[in-house]
Amino acid sequence: MAKRVSVDRTLFTVTLLLVFIGLAMVFSASAVMARERFGSPYHFVLRQFGWALAGLAAMAATMKLDYRRYKHPAVVFSLLGLTTLLLVAVFFLDRSHNTHRWLKLGPLSFQPSELAKPTLILFLAYFLEMRTKAMDDWRRTLLPAIAPALVMAGLILIQPDLGTAVACAAIAAVVLFVAGMSLKYYAWALAPLPLFFYVFIMRVPWRYQRILAFLDPYSDPQGRGFHIIQSLIAVGTGGLAGLGFMEGRQKLFYLPEPHTDFIFAVTAEEFGLIGSLIVVSLFAIFLYRGIRAAVLTQDVFARYLAAGIVAMVGVQALFNISVVLALMPTKGIPLPFISYGGSSLFITLASVGVLLNITQQTD
Predict the structure, then answer these.
(1) Residues in a beta bridge with 105
(2) Which of 5, 37, 272, 301 has the fewest CB atoms found within 10 Å of its own CB?
(3) What is the b/e burial string over 302-311, where b = at least 16 CB atoms within 10 angstroms of the residue's CB?
(4) Mind listing the pLDDT tens digit for each residue in 69-92?
(5) For the stretch 221-255, what's the b/e string if a residue is b when 16 or more beta carbons lie within 10 angstroms of its beta carbon?
(6) CA distance 264 to 336
(7) Is the pTM of this model over 0.90?
(8) What is the C-alpha separation between 90 and 108, in angstroms, rounded?
């Protein structure tokens, strides 16, 4: 097997461009709000910049470390146990924003649910590599494979964080598909979906209101439909070329969390259709290069790792952009590399470093 001299430069460059765009948009989306709340327009962007530096350092480290080092039971199961412990630990801490999602250490906060995604990918890659020829054995392969995914998704769901739980399930589904799981098992997995929908959405008032807002936001434009309508106004106002950097208006206390969940709406308003397509194109290039690495590698473990990391970025980008465009009900899913959020940015960049290391080992 031929060994490449360097990493995939296209993938590396696209990642840096997305991080740079993210820092610029976090500043634009949060400056007024930060000055109002904290007395400085740089409050959020400086924190994000610090996390970006830490994330890029982690990416550089994982990019240099041979991905095969992770293929060890001590690494896999230690990380699996630690992540599960952290997901449980958040329930014993004070609530933040009416949820149990963060571990706080002084001024720093960390979401264990972000760590759950790469941990799940690593476990599935390690476990399924040894069972590639027995993917239809639901007792010895499928049940042990999906058990950690169900536990983690369940813990995240009751934080509550439905969006991240669904993202974890989607990532696991992609890795299992790449590993060769029969499509009939997806049908079995989808069978309880109506019951899940009833229990966790229809019976939860605020989630039910989000469904109603998604179906018809203009039925209550000042209430449940307000956020979706403001997002669509931002996207529509941008037109072809946008209003210009820092010139957006919907971020001025109209859009909810404009620097996190709805940062793509701010991007669309300020840079228009052209800017939005550039961002989407960068994600498309990222996904293409990541899928290419998964296809070219001859190492099954590397293929599953690469597929999982690509799915992690792609699923979250799809969810976030779809919510902004009112193609999905509102979920708290960040836009990878771009949305404000230190733990998300750090974990994503560290994972991309692993993917870049895999590209060095492809033919």
Answers:
(1) 108
(2) 5
(3) bbbbbbbbbb
(4) 999 999 999 999 999 999 998 888
(5) eeebbbbbbbbbbbbebbeeebbeeeebebbeebb
(6) 11
(7) yes
(8) 15
